[in-house]
Write a structure and sequence with these properties.
Layout: H1 7-10, H2 42-50, H3 70-82
Helix pairs in contact: 2-3
């Protein structure tokens, strides 16, 4: 996996480790998630962002723990599933 990101195009050191963010449309059908495909489900991705991601030298300083309540996580998951036209029971 390369960590150069957009810096290889822009030659801007600030862009090292930065990548274009894809659309959320059909997000439920695009697993696995993250640049390295390390997250298998939307629910796991929500948990990852809720804890503030995984610490690494390229983590944007604006990514911080969200401290979402369980019902907020379920609502977010339901919203993301709906972007794929999918309704899931139990969310």
């Amino acid at each position: 996996m390369t960590t150069t990101g957009r810096a290889c195009i822009t030659v801007n050191p600030y862009h090292k480790g930065a990548f274009k963010t894809p659309t959320l449309r059909e997000i439920a059908n695009t697993a696995p998630y993250m640049l390295d495909s390390s997250i298998a489900t939307l629910e796991e991705a929500i948990e990852s962002y809720d804890r503030g991601g995984n610490q690494n030298p390229y983590l944007n300083e604006s990514i911080v723990p969200l401290h979402l309540a369980s019902d907020e996580k379920r609502a977010l998951a339901a919203f993301l599933w709906a972007l794929s036209g999918t309704v899931r029971d139990g969310l």
